[in-house]
Specification:
420 residues; Adenylosuccinate Synthetase, subunit A, domain 2; Adenylosuccinate Synthetase, Chain A, domain 3; 10-stranded mixed β-sheet; 4-stranded mixed β-sheet; 30% helix; 22% strand; binds guanosine-5'-diphosphate; binds 6-O-phosphoryl inosine monophosphate; binds magnesium ion
């Protein structure tokens, strides 16, 4: 029998609650695999008293029998990965289950520095990156000077690769003296690579052996569709493919291996960093969403920008990913709003507009309002437990997005979920 890959993907600008949804679906899988991004991701899960913020390790850390795989499309900060593994091990997670693809590229201290330098070079229009060196690492991969994890396994090869990439970075910077001391960095990287060594595997072989053995694999998205390098709100995006296509290129499988795609939407919208945001609320309602939803970044602690659910962006994301069904998170956060908005159209003068035109000065978003609900719904466990207006809101989203919502979450805890 041959196995297959299902996916849980973020459909907005990240932080949709992918971690907690993956934690829940993971019970039906043998392997959970990240296929892209690095520790710019922050995925929170809460099970009982245990609360974890995962950056690179897949969000099935609290599902003891599931294998955890960091795939070929990811970028790995060696020291960051070791710290994360140590942190997980301390709280009783079996980290022997974690494997890294030899084709994932490594993020060096140089890259964080280049990240800051490139933000600075943009003057008044920075991206607002997480500052973790993700963009420069992917840029080096495309420029064919990057270092795949597999090259850290042989000391001489690794030393040569480090020297080569450093000379490229020196030429890229106006003032190369800002780069960390090379000899010190080299020793740190060699030491870290030696400690990670046993977790590095042939990434393509790993996935295909499990598919051949009939295993069920869940691909865990990082970031979100609207941050995708090709289809997001460019240039205010991340540097990897966050959409379903990234599963093929990030794990090394063909499209026929992919089964169901679950799209995760927050019941409203948030965004960290700069860039267009058609449904953004810059008023008291936005502040209220931020407070009620505790919308502060997991990685950088930055306040997240908040706004209503954007059904136009939602349909765009659903199409890009071949999405089968939806999991809707943080519905509880909308409790207590007298009215709840949904963006239902984009206009540029008399005509319809697209998200790609959102930076145009005449771009306008049309908002529809529904009556809110006052009840606290954190304890709801069945659809019938929800107030009528919450059910109306869900039905309206289903009809606007054109997909069934199969799961809602009403709190951060594992059990705060309702199956439709
Ligand atoms: P991810 O990056 O998509 O995994 O999302 P994050 O973990 O960065 O952000 C989602 C935040 O919302 C986390 O702090 C979660 O604990 C929290 N969260 C997830 N689902 C719910 C929910 O249904 N209700 C509430 N109130 N919080 C939630
Ligand atoms: P998770 O997986 C939210 C955003 C940054 C910035 C842009 C580029 O937790 O949903 P980068 O450091 O990737 O070059 O930054 O992308 N960004 C995220 N926003 N959630 C994330 O991950 C993000 N990862 C990157 O804020 O706007
Ligand atoms: Mg996050």
């Amino acid at each position: 029998m041959s196995g297959h890959i299902d996916a849980v993907l973020g459909m907005q600008w990240g932080d949709e609650g992918k971690g907690r949804i993956v934690d829940w679906y993971a019970r039906d899988y043998d392997v959970v695999a990240r296929f892209g991004g690095g520790d710019n991701a922050g995925h929170r899960i809460e099970v009982g008293e245990q609360k974890l913020a995962l950056r690179l390790v897949p969000s099935a850390a609290l599902n003891p029998s599931v294998e955890l795989f960091v795939g070929s499309g990811c970028v790995v900060n060696l020291e960051g990965a070791l710290e994360e593994l140590a942190r997980l091990s301390e709280v009783g997670v079996d980290i022997e289950r974690v494997r890294f693809s030899d084709r994932a590229h490594i993020v060096l201290p140089d890259h964080a520095l280049l990240d800051r330098a490139s933000e600075h070079a943009r003057g008044g229009a920075p991206i607002g990156t997480t500052g973790r060196g993700i963009g420069p690492t992917y840029a080096d991969r495309v420029s064919r000077v990057g270092i795949p994890l597999g090259q850290t396994l042989d000391e001489r090869t690794f030393r040569n690769a480090l020297r080569a990439i450093r000379s490229v970075h020196e030429r890229a910077l106006q003032d190369p003296s800002v780069l960390p001391d090379f000899a010190e960095m080299e020793e740190r990287m060699l030491a870290a690579a030696a400690r990670l060594r046993t977790a590095i595997v042939d990434g393509v072989g790993y996935i295909h052996a499990r598919l051949a053995a009939g295993k069920r694999i869940l691909a865990e998205g990082a970031q979100g569709t609207l941050l995708d390098i090709s289809f997001g709100s460019y240039p205010y995006v991340t540097s990897s493919q966050c959409t379903a296509g990234g599963i093929c290129t990030g794990l090394g499988v063909g499209p026929s291996a992919i089964g169901r795609v679950i799209g995760i939407y927050k019941a409203y919208t948030t965004r960290v960093g700069s860039g267009p945001f058609p449904s953004e609320l810059l008023d008291a309602e936005g502040d209220r969403l931020r407070d009620a939803g505790r919308e502060f970044g997991t990685v950088t602690g930055r306040p997240r920008r908040c706004g209503w659910f954007d059904a136009v962006a939602a349909r765009y994301a659903a199409a890009l990913n071949g999405t089968h069904a939806v999991a809707l998170t943080k519905l509880d956060v909308l409790s207590g709003f007298e009215r709840v908005g949904i963006v239902t159209g984009y206009r540029l003068g008399e005509r319809e507009a697209t998200l790609a035109e959102a930076m145009h000065p005449d771009f306008r978003a049309e908002v529809e309002f529904l009556d809110g609900w006052a009840e606290d719904i954190g304890g709801a466990r069945r659809p019938a437990d929800l107030p009528m207006n919450a059910r109306r809101y869900i039905a309206r989203l289903e009809s606007l997005v054109g997909l069934p919502i199969e799961l809602f979450s009403v709190g951060p805890e594992r059990e705060a979920l309702i199956k439709a």
